[in-house]
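Fold this sequence, please.
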Amino acid sequence: MDPVRVGICGLGTVGSGTFDVLTRNADEIARRAGRPIVIEQVGARRDNPDCDTSGVNVTRDIFEVARNPDIDVLVELIGGYDVARELVMTAIEHGKHVVTANKALIAVYGNEIFHAAHKKGVIVAFEAAVAGGIPVIKSLREGLGANRIQWLAGIINGTGNYILTHMRDEGRAFDDVLAEAQALGYAEADPTFDVEGIDAAHKLTILASIAYGVPLQFDRAYTEGIARITADDVEQADNLGYTIKHLGITRRGDNGIELRVHPTLIPKERLLANVHGVKNAIAVMGDAVGPTLYYGAGAGAEPTASAVVADLLDVARDITTAHRYRVPYLAFSGVNDEVNALPILPMEEIVTAYYLRLLAVDRPGVLARVATILAEQGISIEAIIQKEATEGELVPIILLTHRTREQHMNDAIRQLESLADIAGPVTRIRVESLDEQE
């Protein structure tokens, strides 16, 4: 049987890992695909000294790969937005299937790309775009296809998890651990996408669309980073029985879908609370199956290459059986009418519990005024920790509230910060039980 001919664009960490896995495991992959999968051409602006491409046609023009009539599948591993979009759309226009690990591309341009691919009758596969080597997209689209997904919560950025893990285990400050993560190569020189939640929001957008059959709506995702989390917050969360994790959370409600990334207190006994270092994990609650957890390496050359090659296997099998892609890109057929009834909820409508930290002047009546403001917004207090005075006359006060609407908490925080006896901004971290019995 004729081989499936692949063009790889991008020879960085994931590109070189994909090249190595395809060549090293060629016989095993061919047996699984029912035909050989061969690298016909590589498009890369520069050589990778760690990747031996001798014997393979290498071009500096990635668009040459997209137009090459001898290529069946283009593997887009260049990253970024606009050039990647143009490359993928060119490949689709020339009748090529596409495999990509680019979460930003799918989250922002996925609706357009899938529409073009459907018209052209080609496949776009993107398992590697979320959580590296963890097959969570395939699990959501296929393995959990019988379920109504109730909620999904994930640690889907290894850099943020590494930082919070070391802050907790070693009592260190955010900036200190971030510098270490950069030195070790876990964080980029500009860590904004990781620590501000943008990378996680790209991935969460994709997961939510697959879980609920809604269009990709990255612009509606709420993102909040971890730079304001202090060692004291981590310690107090621990004292209260919680661990702080930077989570992506999506939940289906009667009025719409939650789509949010932010630091979150979760009970220590939850499985997600015990995911450490650079590892990723996604918890999914289905109405039939109950809670499931997907854990593993969320990044890296060969873990991500594992997902890229798995997509290539799917494409090869689909080509072999000569039928159109059997699984819809976002898991649901005809994502249209029902979608319009499931909007992404604004953050102000989210209901959750809260951890609050504020610095107050050490004088009688301050705590009573704080409690009154919360009560006027209908917010009840579950726990209070008032520490001894530090930094002169300022007393740290830690509050844990019951569940309330975000808008009510916003109003309460504005009033608290306007009090003369409260110094500086109020730190707010959301609290989720992630009840595995739901």
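The longest strand covers residues 242-252. Residues 301-321 form the longest helix (21 residues).
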